[in-house]
TrEMBL record:
Keywords, comma-separated and alphabetical: ATP-binding, Ligase, Nucleotide-binding
Highest classification ranks of the organism: Bacteria, Pseudomonadati, Campylobacterota, Epsilonproteobacteria, Campylobacterales
Mur ligase central domain sequence ranges: 64-181
Native organism: Campylobacter jejuni
GO molecular function terms noted in the UniProt entry: ATP binding; tetrahydrofolylpolyglutamate synthase activity
Protein name listed in UniProt: UDP-N-acetylmuramoyl-L-alanyl-D-glutamate--2, 6-diaminopimelate ligase
CDD domains hit by this protein: SIMIBI
Keyword Nucleotide-binding set for record: yes
Pfam family, one: Mur_ligase_M
Length: 185
């Protein structure tokens, strides 16, 4: 994925790297950073990326995790905030929305971090007060929300699910707990 800037772009994929672009180094792609350097790019982290994209640090990010109810809870919060007159964004299973307009189709429950940063950039441009997002256990284990600062974290419930990915229920619970114990998220 590429996010365009005035004179360059940001990517998290070394195959897209070109001289003088920015490579967003994450926990998922850190092993490829040396490949990016060889192509003459500038390596940045999530904080630097937020600055380049001019993301408003005052947008309150609300994250929702749980086995069931993430989509319903996120949609309810989004709808209530809109009804109260706030400007807000939402991303999750049903797609991405800003101020009641769909900006992206259905995709992963929790997008890769560069896509989420693109949504936050759009939310900034649309003067959003809040950004609500679903946070899956897969995303937590894969660090797809690294560098985001949450104003609120909501846990809906937990039942046995996604054991094909996590291996067992204990690993699944540990994945959900990451959302509340790792403040670097």
């Amino acid at each position: 994925m590429k996010l365009k800037l005035d004179q360059s772009f940001i990517t998290d994929n070394t195959l897209e790297c070109e001289k003088d672009c920015y490579f967003l180094k994450t926990a998922q792609n850190m092993n490829f950073a040396s490949d990016a350097l060889e192509k003459g790019v500038k390596i940045i982290d999530v904080e630097e990326c937020k600055k380049l994209l001019k993301i408003d640090e005052n947008i309150k990010i609300i994250g929702i995790t749980g086995t069931n109810g993430k989509t319903t809870t996120a949609a309810a919060i989004y709808s209530i905030l809109l009804d109260l007159g706030f400007k807000c964004g939402l991303c999750g299973t049903r797609g991405a929305f800003i101020n009641d307009e769909q900006i992206d189709e259905k995709s992963l429950t929790t997008s890769p971090i560069l896509k989420t940063l693109e949504y936050l950039q759009l939310a900034t441009q649309k003067k959003c007060d809040f950004f609500i997002m679903e946070v899956s256990s897969h995303a937590l284990v894969q660090n797809r929300i690294e560098g985001l600062k949450f104003a609120a974290k909501i846990f809906t419930n937990i039942t046995q699910d996604h054991l094909d990915f996590h291996g067992n229920f204990e690993n699944y619970k540990a994945a959900k707990e990451l959302f509340f114990t790792d403040e670097s998220l």
